[in-house]
Design a protein that fits this description.
CATH topology of the largest domain: Rossmann fold
Order of helices and strands: HEHEHEHEHHHHHHHHEHEHE
Number of strands: 7
Function: Specifically methylates the N4 position of cytidine in position 1402 (C1402) of 16S rRNA.
Bound molecules: S-adenosylmethionine
Helix content: 40-55%
Number of domains: 2
CATH superfamily of the largest domain: Vaccinia Virus protein VP39
Catalytic activity: cytidine(1402) in 16S rRNA + S-adenosyl-L-methionine = N(4)-methylcytidine(1402) in 16S rRNA + S-adenosyl-L-homocysteine + H(+)
Strand content: 5-15%
Strand order of the largest sheet: 3-2-1-4-5-7-6
GO molecular function: rRNA (cytosine-N4-)-methyltransferase activity
Pfam families: Methyltransf_5 (PF01795)
Main location: cytoplasm
């Protein structure tokens, strides 16, 4: 049973301002919470393309979306291929693109996927089960400096170098096979007083390794830029992020595309001719209500940002 509680369910779909006959893309199908709401607002002639790289999500979503399958297309792929996916479907412009980033609850709950620091499993963490790179490779084969760098950059973990050192000392003795072994090494790398504050000591390092395994930040940046390019005038992007690194990419990309003239100050008139591509509709991100945060822990760090494509 695929059980994922959709975060900012109505808010993210309302953000798309659905036109009943439009063409929409849900880049992160997951348990199809957002996709089924979008599909329920579409009428004949409309189209929803829902993408996920996880086979389990696609199988479950197929059932949930059964009543709408006449206007829904499911695609197993990385969303960083959005342009190619749309091109293959002969679609040149879309009216809205939704991202609800990160992992789904089933991915976290199925211990054998290796995403959780609370369950023993092989070091995996792949969203796409056919991908080659796994957490095992990163932990056992990457250079110590590379491991330290991703833990610092993607986990914002200040003891990154010490943790990387512990990992490399251990793997010189024998390969590190499981999430549990990794958790122990992370704990060893964090001084005792720091271990007692700020949640589970392995949280930041697990997040970092997961981001690296799935190349999450680069995939999102590329896909967001390509989505903006594929939007029809008046089309919208609606993006839910769950940590500051993703949110920063969204905010900065929206800002870049909403900039007009970039001439140096003091010129008597504009020489660059640059026009803004996007209008940002959420100056401050929308966050889940207190009730939603109370009911769903995952919702606590969620932020929604919406932007609209301007006419040229
Ligand atoms: C938070 S869940 C989405 C939940 C969904 N909105 C719902 O309401 O049920 C994120 C999903 O996006 C997928 N995903 C994350 N990054 C992806 C990528 N680069 N390409 C394709 N799918 C991705 C994950 O496999 C996961 O199923």
């Amino acid at each position: 049973m695929f059980h994922h509680i959709t975060v900012l369910h109505e808010e993210a779909v309302d953000g798309l301002n659905i036109k009943p006959g439009g063409i929409y893309v849900d880049c992160t199908l997951g348990g199809a919470g957002h996709s089924s709401l979008i599909a329920s607002r579409l009428t004949e002639g409309a189209r929803l393309i829902s993408i996920d790289q996880d086979d389990t999500a696609l199988a479950a979503a197929r059932e949930r979306l059964a009543p709408y399958m006449d206007h829904v297309t499911l695609v197993k792929s990385n969303f960083r291929r959005i342009k190619q996916i749309l091109h293959d479907l002969h679609i040149t412009q879309v009216d809205g693109v939704l991202f609800d980033l990160g992992v789904s609850s089933p991915q976290l709950d199925e211990a054998e996927r290796g995403f959780s620091y609370n369950a023993e499993a092989a070091l995996d963490m792949r969203m796409d089960q056919q991908q080659e790179l796994t957490a095992y490779t990163i932990v056992n084969e990457w250079e110590e400096s590379e491991i330290a760098s991703i833990i610092f950059k993607y986990g914002e973990e200040k003891f990154a170098r010490r943790i990387a050192r512990e990992i490399c000392l251990e793997r010189a003795r024998k390969p590190i096979e499981t999430t549990e072994e990794l958790v122990e090494l992370i704990k060893r790398g964090i001084p005792a007083p720091a271990r007692r504050t700020g949640g589970h000591p392995a949280k930041r390092t697990f997040q970092a390794i997961r981001i690296a395994v799935n190349d999450e930040l680069n995939a999102f940046k590329e896909a967001l830029e390509d989505s903006i390019e594929m939007l029809a005038p008046g089309g919208r992007t609606s993006v839910i992020t769950f940590h500051s690194l993703e949110d920063r990419i969204c905010k900065q990309t929206y800002q870049e595309y909403s900039k007009g003239c970039i001439c140096p100050p003091g010129l008597p008139q504009c020489a660059c001719g640059q026009k803004p591509t996007l209008k940002i509709l959420t100056r401050k991100p929308i966050i889940p209500t207190d009730v939603e945060q109370e009911e769903n822990r995952r919702a606590r760090s969620a932020k929604l940002r919406v932007a609209e494509k301007l006419a040229k």
